[in-house]
Amino acid sequence: AGAISVLNTYYGRGDLAKLPIGAYNVNTTGALLEMEDPLPYVPLLGKTFESIVKNTSSPGVEDAVALYRRVLAGQPHRSVAISSIGIHTNLAALLKSRPDKYSSLTGVELVTEKVYLLAVMGGKYPASNGQPECNVCGGLRNQHNHAVASAAASYVAAHWPATSQLIWSGFEVGLLIQSGGEGFQKCAAATAANPVKAAMVSYEGGPNKSRYSWDPITTLVAVRGIDAVPSVAACTECDGVNVIDAATGNNHWMPGPKSNQTYLILKDGKGAGDAIDKLLCQRPKYHA
Length: 288
Known about the structure:
The protein is α/β, with parallel strands linked by helices. It has helices at about 1-10, 40-50, 65-75, 90-95, 105-115, 135, 145-160, 170-175, 180-185, 195-205, 215-225, 270-280; strands at about 20-25, 60-65, 80-85, 115-120, 165-170, 180, 210, 230-235, 240-245, 250-255, 260-265. Strand 1 (about 20-25), helix 2 (about 40-50) and strand 2 form a beta-alpha-beta unit.
């Protein structure tokens, strides 16, 4: 939550009343993760840059599932796109949620009513072949978290409403897209005051080093839609659904009737990276 707040503040979006931040609740039923230490760039951003929120315990940080329900309840019919770039515990808990003070609808009913698109960075396509991708299996460092994350991903894949498009962005796509290196760090916006640059330099251990772009390309597709991102395309002749093993996180594409699901095919890795860098090079529009 602290790192997100730093980025929001830099881009002039730090007011929690206008752009709230939700955090994982360790008490969420069925999603009892054991907390792991963050990567070094996370505390670095909190110590170096201005932000309202310092960590998940800061005042104003909401329970992620409650925030999902509150925000979705206030949106127009089928107007919401979601980018999922981590494990699926919050999404699974949203689908399982019951009516509350924000909405009389269940989680599935609320998603059906409000969400037209979910773009997920997760899995490998057409199959993981015994080597599960970390967002759907929670990684393999902590066996408890591995089990919880795998079960959550399996649930989301199987229960996401058919009225909402579900786009899977696989490991193999982002692996061939590089961004955040010289193309970004040598542009005018990449000053010492830019926390995105600081995060990249910290993560990569030095300046002008690019990074695999699993999460950025997924979010770009969620915001713009597949057709507006010419470097990728929906898989053709791939009718069917993604199946994720609840115990292991392994996935495979199961051919079948046309569904709401598809997965991305990369057409131009350099073009995708350039598009991401172009966005990173934009100066904050609302920064004071």
